Amino acid sequence: MSYSTENTLLYVNDLSVAYGDKTVIKDINFVEKDVIREGSITGQVIAFVGRSGRGKSTLFKAMTGLIKPTTGKILIADTATESENDAKEVREGDIGFVDQKYTLFRNKTVYQALLFALRKKEMSKEEKHDIIMSYLADWGLEKAKDQYPCELSGGQRQRTAVIEQILCSGHYMVLDEPFSGLDVGNIEDVKNAFNLITSTHEFNTIIYSTHDIELAVELADSIYVIGYPTIDGKLGDYGTIVKHVDMKELDLAWKDFGLDHIEVVKQIKATMLNS
Fold this sequence. Notes:
Elements: E1 4-19, E2 22-36, E3 44-49, H1 56-63, E4 71-77, E5 87-89, E6 95-98, H2 110-117, H3 125-138, H4 154-169, E7 172-175, H5 184-198, E8 205-209, H6 213-219, E9 222-227, E10 230-231, E11 234-235, E12 240-246, H7 259-273
Helix pairs in contact: 2-4, 4-5, 6-7
């Protein structure tokens, strides 16, 4: 499928995070650009895979501004300015973060939580209401709008948490293990949520981690494997990017899962086993 890439949306350079003497991740470098396909709005879907304990969650915390990197920088496109080339360093709140628990306010209904997410936006009450109702309709949550988190299903909680982050953070969204522990129906819900996010705006960028390599290969257009590097024949003790698979270049992005995808799954699993 033909595509082109334009503005840089995410730039990570020489990133490392250490806690005291312990370096968790190091030498993380990657660039993701806005993907353009004629006739369709195409957001970006970026997957991070790797064995447990290799630093994926630490990387996500750094990328969302929840922890300060020891070295390096993380830049995102400054979509609030007129210029197409403006970039800014990530601060907490710039990139939405949905953890595995789908944390929501216990004392707010779905509607109240989404209204709170819009508190910093300069809009009238009516405009905020219209936006919220539009999202609730698109995401199948209209009937749940006056319910509290304890009354929601896992899928409804997750969708509410994702919309909340979209409304307060803008175009970037990090999801830590969004498929973990879900049944077949809920996995389909998350896939549909991905489609909703990426087809709403050209800059919308989903970054997620998963232990399900098939789901990474099926949904992502760019995949990074985080693992321990091999240095002088031995495994290092910090996480870094050990492989990048560009599904667009392989002409496998935005296509139904097939035999070629299975081959990529095998390659990624082999890399993970050795890192």
